[in-house]
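Re: the 213-residue chain
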Amino acid sequence: MKKTSESALKVAEFLLQVKAIKLQPNDPFVWASGWKSPIYCDNRVTLSFPQVRTYIRQQFVSLINESFGKPDVIAGVATGGIAQGALVAQEMGLPFVYIRSEAKKHGLTNMIEGVVEKGQSVVVIEDLVSTGGSSLKAVEALREVGCDVKGMAAIFTYGFSVAEENFKKAKCKLVTLSNYETLIAQALESNYVTEDDLATLKLWRENPSQWKK
C-alpha cells in the first residue's frame, strides 16, 4: 500500500525543498556501494526543519494506523530511523526501541537497545529503503527475540525490484510516505528537473548497478 498521492507528493516536495533529496542527472553521485546515481537521499536533513519534521511524523502515524493498527512498540533502524521512530513513538504514546546495524562488541552486546518483550507487536521505522538488506536485518533481530513484526514504514523508497523481492521473501510488509515515481513527478512539476532529465532518471532506476558503467 502506498500513501495517498496528495501526501506522497507533499512529502516529495518537502524532501526536495530542504535538499534531503538531491537530483543531479548530469553530475552523478557515487554511493558507498560504488553505484553511480543521479539521486542522493539523506532524510536526516528533515529533522532540522520543524514544519517538515512535524508533517512527516503526522503522516507516519496516519500510515501506521491505516496499514497496521496500533502496535505495542515502535522500533527505529539505526541510524536514520532512530530520531524518526522516537518522534512517532512519542506521538502515539508508545514504547520505543532501536536496532543497531550489528551487535555491540562490549558490555551487554545488545543489537536491540531498549525494552521489548516476546509476543509484542512492533512496527519498524526506517528513513530510506534501497535494497532493503540492512532494514530487514532489524526485522530479523526483532523476530529472533519473539516479537511479532507487523511491518515497516519508511519515508522514501527507490522502488528497486530487488527490495520488493527481499521484503516479499522476508514476509514483511513495507509501506512508505513517498517513493521514486512520485518524487520525479514532483521534481518535474516544480521545474527542479527537465523532461530530458526525467528520461535519465527513469533509465537509471531500471538498472542502477550498471548505469554509467
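The CA atoms of residues 86 and 143 lie 20 Å apart.
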